[in-house]
Design a protein that fits this description.
Elements: E1 5-7, H1 9-13, E2 19-21, E3 27-31, E4 42-46, E5 50-60, E6 63-71, E7 91-98, E8 107-110, E9 115-120, E10 132-138, E11 149-154, E12 160-164, E13 170-171, E14 175-178, E15 188-196, E16 201-208, E17 218-221
Antiparallel strand pairs: 1-2, 3-4, 5-6, 6-7, 7-8, 9-10, 10-11, 11-12, 13-15, 14-15, 15-16, 16-17
Length: 237
């Protein structure tokens, strides 16, 4: 992806933002064969937008599908003239790249109508078509990038579950862990580090992967506050 959040040393040396949102430059995504070189790149385009995190991508029937959290504008960054950027939040959409079509447009369809970030799938289905997804959500849809809920989305049924935090608490990225190596997709647990605003500390919450709405089945008190926005992978050795 080549998206219109630009970096400019000259701009910075002139006292303006080193990083800035320039939507007039448009958005482009290059598709290249894994077993070839850059001469095979095919460029697709979309209206100006920004993506930090994808949910998953896969290939089928000469099409590439990418489920991503898409912003209308890059959040947290100013415009090139130094003026403040617009408020923004991401929503889950599906991008389709048709490799058999001469069009260079990216087909986009919405998957959910809830503001969110940090989407995750069952790691065993990464790069293959998935059914389940989890993400941190803002149920107020206020474009604040304040994730105060954990969402589970079943893309087969369209059903969404939500566990909402209260008292100003905020969640980090929810991470899925399978119950066993051969368990069905989505059968397992979701863990998330949650900031407890009223006490200035953090907890690790554990949920049933497909029933986050009933709330955590276990809570571990963290020994120290974890900075908001923490995200990553859990691994075993």
């Amino acid at each position: 992806p080549i998206l219109p959040l630009t970096a400019s040393r000259e701009r910075a040396m002139g006292g303006r933002p080193p990083f800035a949102w320039e939507p007039e430059k448009g958005s482009y995504v290059g598709v290249m064969r894994r077993d070839a070189d850059v001469s095979t790149i095919r460029w697709f385009n979309a209206p100006a937008c920004y993506v930090f995190h994808p949910l998953n991508s896969w290939e089928a029937d000469d099409k590439i599908y990418c489920d991503v959290m898409r912003y209308d504008v890059a959040p947290l960054f100013p415009k090139a003239d130094g003026s403040p950027g617009d408020k923004a939040a991401a929503r889950l959409v599906r991008w389709t790249f048709d490799l058999n079509n001469n069009s260079d447009a990216i087909k986009e369809e919405p998957l959910d109508d809830l503001d969110g970030e940090f989407p995750r799938v069952d790691p065993r289905v990464e790069t293959r078509k998935h059914r389940h997804g989890w993400y941190a959500a803002d149920p107020t849809n206020a474009k604040t990038i304040k994730q105060s809920a954990i969402a589970h989305l079943d893309l087969k049924t369209g059903k969404r579950q939500l566990y909402e935090l209260t008292g100003g608490d905020m969640t980090s990225e929810p991470v899925f862990t399978p119950r066993s190596a051969d368990a069905p997709e989505g059968d397992g647990w979701v863990t998330a580090v949650v900031y407890r605003a009223g006490e200035d500390r953090s907890d690790l919450l554990v949920f049933e992967g497909q029933d986050v709405a009933k709330g955590p089945i276990a809570t571990a008190k963290m020994p120290r506050r974890v900075p908001f926005g923490f995200h990553g992978n859990w691994v075993s050795f």
